[in-house]
Design brief:
Number of helices: 1
Radius of gyration: 12 Å
Helix content: 25-40%
Order of helices and strands: EEH
Largest sheet: 2 strands, antiparallel
Shape: elongated
Distance between the termini: 17 Å
Strand content: 5-15%
Strand order of the largest sheet: 1-2
Length: 43
């Protein structure tokens, strides 16, 4: 298991495909990513 917060970056990636349907990354995904990146800068 990796103790580096950047190892968990994939946990905050948006779901952009469900079965054959393409989905856009929305504002909640952007906010989650921004919050996570801010967190990694403080740890």
């Amino acid at each position: 298991m990796c103790s580096d917060p950047e190892c968990d970056y994939g946990k905050v990636m948006p779901c952009t495909r469900y079965e054959a349907r393409e989905l856009p990354a929305g504002p909640v995904a952007k906010q989650a990513r921004d919050l996570y990146l801010a967190f990694t800068e403080t740890t």
